[in-house]
Structure formats: structure tokens, C-alpha cells
Amino acid sequence: MMARNGSPSEAEIRARIQLLATWMHDAGLGSGPVVLIGRLTGGSQNVLLHLQQGDREFVLRRPSWHSRSDSDRSILREARVLAGLSSSDVPHPQFIGACSDVEVFGAAFLLMERVPGVDADRALAGAANARHGGESLGLAVVDSLATLARIGVPAALSDLGKPEGWVARLAPRWRAQLDSYSQLPGYRGLDSLGEVDRIGSWLAANCPSSFRPGVVHGDFHIDNLVFDPARLQVAAIVDWELATIGDPLLDLAHLLATWPDGRDAVAPRRRLEHLPAAAEIIERYADVLGRDLTDLPWYRVVACYRLGVLLEGSKARADAGQGPVDIGARLHDLAVTLFDRARTLIDS
Q: Is CATH 3.90.1200.10 what the domain over 120-347 is classified as, yes or no?
């Protein structure tokens, strides 16, 4: 058996792949041996295996070997979203299948088509003209986000979330999550976060009265995109496990909060050169969609607040002995910066 609290050996992975081949055959998803091509990078939250069956290449995605108890639900949610996007023009990995039986691969998993492409760093490194490449890639990112916003709510995803009251729930939800960290033994970080109560109060007082529902990715940033390096276009948006139904402006706000242009955004990665500035991103989004962006300042504040709370969770778990201390400290510093950024946006 593959332990959920420890990384498996190569022999265990090979045995699981054999079980996977049997499951695929029984599910009508393909027959024949499945071969491990390699492991893909995808952060610490999930395991990504590049597999091949015959001449077909695909990717298995499952929770990390050290996953929390709710991780299976996240994987199955992502599978549902990918399936629901299958008839859209949103760039995404094509869904193959999903399995909730932990006996097959030690946890729930999904299978999706492999999308050829590279990350943003390599896409820009191959650009013939660095300045033009940065501008083109940045606008392509905005265009892919606009494509998602344009589809509205597909019928297959109509019950993915609860749009009624969604916007009013955002700030209280993340404040409750931040408060919950105090229950973890050893965590004393709230006092170092500054005036987080002021952010929550401002969000409550300025909450938009309505919004136009659409699919919200929930974690839209440049490292969750696969690029076609030849055309500097987005080949796929990945990591859909936080997707819901809400206002797509939250995705735009999250993109701005994490935009790695070295200007005024906060990004947990190194900067990229020659990207469009925030004002250009906003202008492009408005032009492509033709929608009113009056509420964008509110969403920019809530995006910083939300992301800061999520990152602070790593610090809280590290203080409780449930995660790496160095990563917790680094993400805590980013959380502090995000809360500072939220207050700056409020004051501006």
C-alpha cells in the first residue's frame, strides 16, 4: 500500500501504474501497458506524472504524498471543472477520466491530456525580441483570462458554486480562516500582520451590490499557465481545483496581485522583464470584454487579503510543526506584504 504520509518508492509507483493500466482498461479509457515518462513540476500541493500508453501521452494528477484529508475532494473538483470546460474555447488540458478509489493510486486522481508547452520563463527566453516578447506574452495572458470570463456559466458547471451571496461571503470567509490559525499550537503570527481588521471593515463597507456570474479559476497567475513558445500564446490554464462560480473580476485582481513585473505587485517568484504594466492589463481586459470595471478596486483589495490569508496558513502550520519552517517564514513575509498592499490600495 502507498502510505499517504510518506513518499513511495519507485517500485511502489511502478506497481501503482500497473493498477492504473487495469483501471483504465476497465473504465474504457485505453488498453495496454502504461509507462512512466517522468515527473512534472507542479509545486508542493500535487503530484504530476507524465505517462504514456501506446502513442498517447497524458498526465496523472493526484494529491501530494503528504496530502491533507480534503485533498481528494479538490482533485475530484478539478476533474469536474475540466470535464465541464470540454466544449469551450478556454485553453485547458482535455479531461480523460477521474477515480475516487484510493486503492488504485493511493488517493483520488485525474487523468488529462498532456499539453505541449513551457513555462513563462522559458517562453520569454526563446523570444527573438525580449521587449516585444514580454509585451506579447503578457497580453496573451490577459486574453486567456478574458476567454474564461466570456463563457459565463456552462450548463455542466451550473451548480459548481453558490453565486447568491458569493461576493458578500468573500471577506468574512477569509477572516474566519485567518482566525482559525490561532487554534494551531505555537502560532502567534496575527500580531505581526498589521491592521488586518481595517481591511476587513473596508471590504464590508464597500462590498459590490451585484455581479455577473461566471467561472472563477480561483488561482489565476502566470505560473498556472502553459505557453506555446513559438506563438507566445497560452496553450493551457492549469490547476483548477479552486474553481467556483462568482465574479471573474476576482481572477483579474488575483493576476494583478501576483503579476511578476517588478513594479507594485506582489509575486512569490522572480520578476520577468518587459511585461505590460498593471494599467495596460486592465485596459486590455476592458477592451476585450467590453465590461465595466468599476468594482475592480474592491476585488484587488480582497484578492490581496485572500492570498495573504492563504499564505499565512503555511506559517501557522509550520509553527505547529506541520510544515517546513523556512517555507512558512518566507510565505509569512509575503503575506505581510500583501496585507500592506491591500491597505495601500484602500488608501489610494
A: yes
